[in-house]
Amino acid sequence: MDRKIELSMQIEDNKKSAGEPGTVKSATRVLDLFEFLGRWDSEKTHTEIAEELRIPKSSLTQLLKTLVQREYLTYVPAAKGYGLGPAVAKLAKHLRDGNDIVAVAEGVLPWVMSETGESCALNFIKGDKSEVVACAISPRRLLYHMRLGDTAPLYATSGGKALLAYLPPEMLEDYLGRVVFEKITSQTIDSVPALVAELEKVRSEKVAFVVEEFTTGIAGVARPILSTTGFPIASLNIAMPLARFDNRMRENCISTLGKAVANIQERLHKATR
Fold first, then answer.
1. S-S: 220 plus which of 54, 158, 230, 262, CB 3.0-4.6 Å?
2. Where are the domains of the chain?
């Protein structure tokens, strides 16, 4: 590409970005690049990308290098071109798995509720919180209400602890390095050492418990739902008034959740074969 043309493109690009409040030039370029490669579903050379997206070659070189290093793009020597990489596929799979698991769990949650008589929910990680993405509510007069979209700190609920316990070490270390504990009730965990000890117990027993750590008078039990690689894609929890959380109910919850999680994981794994 002629140097004068490249400089002209750079000036025009700068003007365009300056005239669009709220846009970030580098982010826009990355998204345009993903859409371009995804649209054609084939490798494109450095020159083809530069000309199509009107990105100066000097800027494009570093952008492509960074995206290849992070595996969002792959370089194919035979074609001398770039294509979408495994990191993009991983993100897409994560979204698909999330949609699949909600659909599967919606058929299992009513059974969990009927077996235990208590409210239950499917939870996803959302930032540093757990979020209810599906639920079945107990028909009893005294119950714990869970609603779609409800969020809670990961450290304070059974569903959140089940998710935290199975995070990859680097993700858990990152979380523990920034978490700020709020003393929601007198029983809420309020230190990293206490949480680490609790998570080790969760991994050992494959089940998480809370007793009045998020809501006074409420107990919770949860199990993680793991991907084929062991990543915690969701958790399944049961919550109930503490007055009904005796040893018999505890064992019933553990058993019921074990069967429910096994059923969900089996159906998910079959769907991905």
1. 158
2. 3-84, 90-271
With contact defined as beta carbons under 8 Å apart, do 146 and 239 qualify? yes
3-state SS assignment for residue 161: helix
Helix axes 192-205, 158-165, angle to 10 degrees: 80
Q: Please report which confidence band the pLDDT of residue 237 belongs to, taking 50, 70 and 90 as the band edges.
A: very high
Alpha-carbon gap, residue 208 to 217, rounded angstroms: 17
pTM, full prediction: 0.68
Roughly how many angstroms between the first and final C-alpha of the chain, as a whole number?
46
Place of tokens 């007069």: 141
- Per DSSP, the three-state class of 69 is helix
Q: Per residue in 100-110, is it b (16+ CB within 10 Å) or e — as a string?
A: bbeebbeebbe
* Cα–Cα distance for residue pair 195/157, rounded to 1 Å: 12
CATH of domain 90-271: 3.30.450.40
Mean predicted lDDT score pLDDT of the chain: 86
Which residue intervals of 125-235 are DSSP H helices?
Answer: 158-165, 169-178, 192-205
| Beta strands 119-126; 129-136: pairing state | antiparallel
Separation between Cα atoms, residue 180 and residue 191, nearest integer Å: 9
- The CA angle 102-107-112, to the nearest 5 degrees, is 105
CA 208 from centroid of its chain's CA atoms: 19
Say whether 132 sits in a helix, a strand or coil.
strand
Give 153-196 pLDDT, tens digit per residue: 999 999 999 999 999 999 999 999 999 999 999 999 999 999 99
φ/ψ of residue 204, rounded to 5: -70, -45
What is the C-alpha separation between 224 and 123, in angstroms, rounded? 9
